[in-house]
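This part of the workshop introduces the protein records we will be handling. A record pairs a protein's sequence with a compact description of its fold. As an example, a complete record with its sequence and its structure tokens follows.

_____
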Amino acid sequence: RHSVIPDADHPFKAAGPEDQRGGCPGLNIMSNYGYMDRSGVVTAGEIVYVRRSNPQCYLFGTDHTTCLGLY
């Protein structure tokens, strides 16, 4: 069973003028909802950590998430 996204702890907040967003919609969503740093600037390790600590965020395996982190 998966959690509902968004939840009360992760409300949507649009990117501000100083925030960065890239070409991956999944990573952008995670930043907009605060699962990752809202600035959009994260390391590959942080992306893997988000996936491991919040498996409902991505329905990908760790290998795929690691590839996203390197993208």
In short: The longest helix spans residues 44-53.
